[in-house]
Amino acid sequence: MKTMVVGASSGLGRELATELARRKHDLVLVASGRRDLEALAADLTLRHGVAVELVALDLATAADPGARLLAALDAESALDALLLPLGMSRGHDDFSLDAAAIGELLAINLHAPLAIIHALLPRLLAAQGVIVLFGSVAAVRGRGRNVVYAAAKRALVSVYESLRQRFAPGQLRVQLYEPGFIATNLTWGMRLPMPASDPARLARQIVAGLGRGSRRRFVPARYALIAALLRGLPWALYRRMRA
User: Fold this and answer.
1) What whole-number distance in Å separates Cα of residue 230 and Cα of residue 227?
2) CB 219 within 8 A of CB 197
3) pLDDT at 194 (0 to 100)
4) Element (H, E) at 146
5) Which of 2, 93, 129, 203 sits at a 20 to 30 Å CA gap from 84?
């Protein structure tokens, strides 16, 4: 199998690439920094004997990231799976952001996934493959923080639903994972309301589910209950929360 991972050089993306290589997937790894990609590719090739192709691409500035990734694939190359564990948030993502910062967040969190899916969809349909999207528990219900990030991640739920509505399971499988806090450099030292999840464990769970059908899952599963509770709160009570 050939699998593309966009956002592969760190965090959950890096762990997904590692688990995919362990399961003998040939890889196309995409991230902004070539040096990090080269180090990861050398390690995975040495340890697991898989073929690894690299694409260094800055999603914040690329006008058409999908076209760039399509051009990087061999004309006859199949693409069995597309994983999009990309994301960017800012600590002060609220209504004080300027237009440039809003544009950068939307470029990475929404424009890039849509553009990449649009470009690679014919290859994935030809392989009867799978697209894996990554939302966030931050998008469960609107709040005064993470405004742009959460809006983009909630839009990905609509993208997931649209793909499932448009294509039958035998044509294309679509999976959406909505993770909570993950133990990465972005959460290091933060005071979190719940323990951060091990990215390697999440990666094993996600890769193990690639061959299954279309589905939407919170990871870890306990966040599904938290999401249900937040959605069920009366607005007057929810509005008083400042988390």
Assistant:
1) 5
2) yes
3) 62
4) none
5) 93
**Phi/psi at 167 (nearest 5 deg)?**
-120, 135
Question: 3-state DSSP call for residue 129?
Answer: coil
Report the alpha-carbon distance of residue 210 to residue 152 in Å, rounded: 24
Torsion of CA 61, 109, 81, 67, to 10 degrees: -30
Inter-CA distances, 238 with 155, 206, 235, Å: 22, 32, 5
How far, in Å, CA of 59 to CA of 7, rounded? 9
The token pair at 127 is 């392989």
pLDDT at 196: 65
Query: Which residues are CB-neighbours of 75 under 8 A, at least 6 positions away?
Result: none
CA distance 85 to 175: 12
Answer yes or no: are the C-beta atoms of 150 and 156 closer than 8 Å: no
- Token pair 């993770």 in the structure block, residue: 179
Q: What are phi and psi of 65, to 5 degrees?
A: -65, -30
74-117 pLDDT tens trace: 877 789 999 999 988 887 788 899 999 999 999 999 999 999 99
- Residue ranges of the chain with per-residue pLDDT less than 50: 187-189
- Taking alpha carbons only, the member of 217, 142, 131, 125 closest to residue 180 is 217
CA–CA separation, 207 and 16 (whole Å)? 7
- First vs last C-alpha separation in the chain: 42
